[in-house]
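Service request form, structural biology core

Requester: graduate student, group of Dr. S.
Request type: structure prediction, single chain
Budget code: on file
Notes: please return the result as structure tokens.

Sequence provided:
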Amino acid sequence: MKVKARFGIIVTTLLLGTTACLNGCATMGMGKTEATKTTAKVETAETGLKQTLAQVDATQASLNSLIEPSQADVKNKFEAYSADVEKTEKMAKQLEKDQAKMQEQQREYLAEWEKKERTYTDPSLREASGQRRAALNSAYSEVPKASTQFQDALNGYLSQVKQIQTQLSLDLTNKGIESITPAAQKALSDGGRLKDTAEPVITAMERVMSEMAREGSGAAAGGQ
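Core staff response, request fulfilled:
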């Protein structure tokens, strides 16, 4: 009888352990999935930002070429400039959407993390999880802060180059180009400073991805 009782206890323990493992694995799997999705959104936004900066460089080059004095082939240069302006505007809008999606995913990720955290009965585990979540939340909060200045600078630049495009569409003569040259020079100067305002955004995004990678993404969102 004692043997049977002991055997029953062992079987019960094994079953309970298996159930706990399955539940833990399911939680970990979901944590990894959400962490991967969150990191991917940040990577997409960062890539879009860098591509937008590269497109600004192209717009800068075409504008600089367009305002050269006594040049030939003005029409083709204006068309190239117009195409660059439109492409820059399109990429800026997409970047804004990507950043909004990134922030939405981050909010959902942290909310899910906190929800799982409340189920922990081990105080030390709850504390460790809370510290990791707070570190990520701190990193996340820096991105929109840094993005505001860059977005304002980018929108201001776009407004300038679009107005130059509109004016030249009305008057593409040498005199017309000469008249917008001061505004063009200002746009070129402002565009040249965009990378400076973008640097803190890139740094903030890199910090987020670094925090996500620290100790493995499986440790995030209640993964351990």
